[in-house]
Design goal:
This protein is α/β, with parallel strands linked by helices. It folds into two domains: 199 residues, Vaccinia Virus protein VP39 (Rossmann fold, 3-Layer(aba) Sandwich), CATH 3.40.50.150; 61 residues, Orthogonal Bundle (Helicase, Ruva Protein, domain 3). It is built from eleven helices and nine strands. The strands form two sheets. A seven-stranded mixed β-sheet has the order 4-3-2-5-6-9-7. A two-stranded antiparallel sheet has the order 1-8. Helix 2 packs across helix 3 and helix 8 packs across helix 11. It is elongated and about 65 Å long. 41% of the residues are buried. Bound molecules: S-adenosylmethionine. S-adenosylmethionine binds next to strand 1, helix 3 and strand 3.
């Protein structure tokens, strides 16, 4: 029996199902169920919510989410070896855990979820930023999810929550902070995982705002942030040259000096520039 439910401890589960960690799948497992329940709590009240979990592995975080009262968990796992261990959890929580054996990049989870929806995951490093980018840039806003509670490499978490002028400030900060409240809620050392990765990790909680902080077209905003930060040491008149033929005039009209660099611009200034570029 474990600390949060009457299922076997995760070390026993891993040994019984021979779930040796595979680096190619980003497998660094959390085995402390008190810790996984604490991560689940960072997502807020889960009762009455469907939760999407990408990469449940042997089910440590899944068990935390269920013990914390999630109405339903949809767990998407690429590694078929984990399915028997996850089936044991599903049997203990009737009608509350659905497991899909798929690559999360190929699956439309909406078909399997009912709002309100929260996404809570200890993401595999190889697909983590791609999934975050997709969740942050859906076809419509507000998105299908109300919050994201995600474990990342600490440097990625810092890029999401970074302020202008800092080394970590870039495209991810703009993408995240434009339409969510984003903060780091937990930091975890390598020893929290089995096997321990080489890096430190952090959990970021992103709460979707009802509307963007400042008006702008997302395509234009992401295009100028990509261009600006791809050449972050260059002045904006050079780094944004390809985004509009009269970029210097557009910068000035938005109240931005063409000699400034992308890392000096606030989110509000990026949005003002996006609106200027979209004026005919
Ligand atoms: N949630 C577990 C935990 O916290 O201990 C495991 C987290 S481990 C960092 C990442 C998990 O994602 C692994 O179980 C791995 O097999 C799975 N995974 C890797 N790539 C995936 C993908 N493209 N789609 C779905 N799952 C994936």
């Amino acid at each position: 029996m474990s600390a949060i439910d009457d299922l076997p401890p995760l070390r026993t589960v891993i040994a019984e199902h021979q779930l040796s960690a595979r680096k190619s799948l980003g497998q660094n497992f959390l085995l402390d169920l008190n810790l996984t329940a604490k991560i689940a709590r960072q997502a807020g009240d889960l009762t009455g919510c469907d939760v999407l979990e990408v990469g449940p592995g042997p089910g440590g975080l899944t068990r935390g989410l269920l013990a914390e009262g999630a109405r339903r968990v949809l767990a998407v796992e690429k590694d078929a070896r984990c399915l028997p261990a996850l089936a044991e959890i599903a049997a203990k929580y009737p009608d509350r855990l659905d497991v899909i054996n798929a690559d999360a990049l190929d699956l439309n989870p909406l078909a399997h979820l009912t709002p309100p929806i929260r996404i809570v995951s200890n993401l595999p490093y190889n697909v983590g930023t791609e999934l975050l980018t997709r969740w942050l840039d859906p076809p419509e806003w507000p998105p299908f999810w109300s919050s994201l509670t995600l474990m990342f490499q600490k440097e990625v978490a810092q890029r999401i929550t970074a302020a202008p002028g800092s080394k970590a400030y870039g495209r991810f900060a703009i993408l995240s902070q434009w339409r969510t409240d984003a903060r780091i809620v937990m930091e975890l050392p390598p020893e929290a995982f089995t096997p321990p990765p080489k890096i430190h990790s952090a959990v970021v909680h992103l709460q979707a705002l009802d509307a963007p902080r400042f008006p702008a077209c997302s395509k234009t905003l992401f295009r100028i942030t990509a261009a600006g930060f791809n050449q972050r040491r260059k002045m904006l008149r050079a780094s944004l040259k390809g985004t509009a033929p009269d970029i210097e005039d557009r910068l000035l009209a938005a109240g931005i000096k063409p000699t400034q660099r992308a890392e000096e611009l606030s989110l509000e200034q990026f949005c003002a520039l996006a609106r200027e570029i979209d004026k005919t």
